[in-house]
Amino acid sequence: MSMEFVVSVAKDAIVTTLLLGLPVLGLGLVVGVAISILQAATQIHEQTLTFVPKIVAVFVALLIFGPWMLRVILDFSQRMLTSMPAAMQ
Q: What's the pTM?
């Protein structure tokens, strides 16, 4: 197993991880900022007001982006499994 192969697998794994996390974390961030602005404007500082909308947004993001995320992880897994025999030579 060459050093180039290990580096390319690590790079591909990091890129795939970032791609999978971006939609869910991005939507959670947008909802969190919107709720924070709403709380600052109305001076309502209720703890559940921050968590419940973010949790709902994450679940909605998983429902919307779930099939795409599954396709990305399956493509990554297939690439890794098909490249392993060549790497072991």
A: 0.76
